[in-house]
Structures are given as C-alpha cells and as structure tokens.
Design a protein that fits this description.
about 80% helix; single chain; mainly alpha
Amino acid sequence: MNTPISTAASAESEINRLHDEASRLSMASKESLFGALAAAWQAGRLLTEEKERVRQKMGRGAWLLWVEQRFHGSIRTAQNYMRLAQTFPDVSALQGLSLRQIYYRLQIPTEPKSRLESARGQPLPARILLAGKLLEEVRACVDARYATTEQLDSCRRDLRPLYEQLRRLFEANNGGIILKNARIIQDKASQRW
C-alpha cells in the first residue's frame, strides 16, 4: 500500500517541479523577447537617424547601398526595425507584447515564407542568368511562326561557336549518360534546324 502513495507523491513532486520550471522558462522567454525587441527598436531608431544623415550627405539613392554594404541584416530587416521604432515612440510600450502582436501592429506577415521567397534572397550565378537569357533568345529564334529561313540561318551561325564549346565541355567531362543525352538533344536540335 505504500507504493501507490509514494508514487503519487513523487508524481505530484515532479509535476510541481516541471510547472515551476515551465514558469521560470516562460518568464525568461518573455524577458528575452523584450530584450530582443528593445535591441531591434534601438537599431531601428539608429537606422532612421542614419538614413537621414546618408540621404543628406549622399542623396536619396545612397541609402539602399549603405544598408547593403554596412548592415549585417537584410533591407527588409532594416525596414522592420525602423518601422518598429516609428510605431512605438517609447521602447517601454513593447513590454508585455507578444511577437505576434508586434507583427500585427507593424503589418508584418506571420505566415511562413514559401520556398520561392526563401530562395529569392540568394543571387543566381551569372552563368545561370546568362543561360536563361540565351534560352529565351533561342526559343524566339526557332519559333517557326515568326522566323524566316534567313533568320534561322543567322541564328544558327551566331550560336554555332557556343554550341561547339558546350558540346566539347559535356563530352569531355561527363561521358556516359550525359554524352548520350547530349547527342539525343543534338539530334533533335539539328532536326529542328
């Protein structure tokens, strides 16, 4: 009979210990959130002052360049900090507010970013951008509805050196399946021309 009572007492003790820990961590979290908001608010105030100084010294367009070169966060983060400082003239007004309440007041979306938005922050390599532009041009060249025979011949002549370089690149480095696929593509491309 002592076992159920001691088990109940130990469970009660553990429950109360965990409650006390949860309360302590919740208070620490609130204090940490206020500390983060206060730091963001102060950064926003300083960014706003710096924006005015930069604009007066270097002109209107210099601000974004300054942020990109000197601020460790993104332009969106800088804008959010500045909006925080402008919306709440006194940092003590942030005390006790949740992050969701702050976002709501600043009209910052709280839904998760899509994969596309997350990837948008990372610039594409130049070769990818150039390849995309080149593909657009090639598609325009081979569009049979608009291309004349002379235009197709001209496009073929212009792109032949690039084609030869790319063919050598893929044949020399990848062999096997890539080479086979490149030849299939080459055959299809020559059929179109």
